[in-house]
Amino acid sequence: xxxxxxxxxxxxxxxxxxxxxxxxxxxxxxxxxxxxxxxxxxxxxxxxxxxxxxxxxxxxxxxxxxxxxxxxxxxxxxxxxxxxxxxxxxxxxxxxxxxxxxxxxxxxxxxx
Length: 112
Ligand code: AMP
Ligand code: ZN
Fold this sequence. Notes:
By secondary structure, the chain is an alpha+beta fold. It contains two helices and five strands, in the order H-E-E-E-H-E-E.
C-alpha cells in the first residue's frame, strides 16, 4: 500500500468503487469518469506505479491482467470487442500512478 494512492485506497476498501471483480491479486472496477458506455479498469492489488515500474517478477501478474480483460469485457456485455489502454507516465497521460489497464467499449471508437 502506498500512502495517498487512490487505487491502493480502493484495494483497501477505504474509498468506495463500483467493483466488478476481485481475487487475491487483482481488482476491477468501473471508471468514475467513463470515456465510453462501458469503461472499467483492471488493477493489481500490489502498488506498482506504472508499467515502467514492473519487473520480471510481475510477469505472471501482467499476464493474468491481460487474460482477465476479455472475460470481464464479455461480462460487461462487450460481445463485439473492446479496447485496452495502459497509460504510462507523464508522457503517456497517466494520472493515477498505480498500474491499471483501461477497458473501454460499447460505442463507436475511432480507429487508432
Ligand atoms: P490514467 O490517466 O490512465 O491514470 O487514468 C486514471 C483513471 O482513473 C481516470 O480515467 C479516472 O477517471 C479514474 N479514476 C480516478 N479516481 C477514480 C476513482 N475513485 N474510482 C474510479 N476511477 C477513478
Ligand atoms: Zn497504489
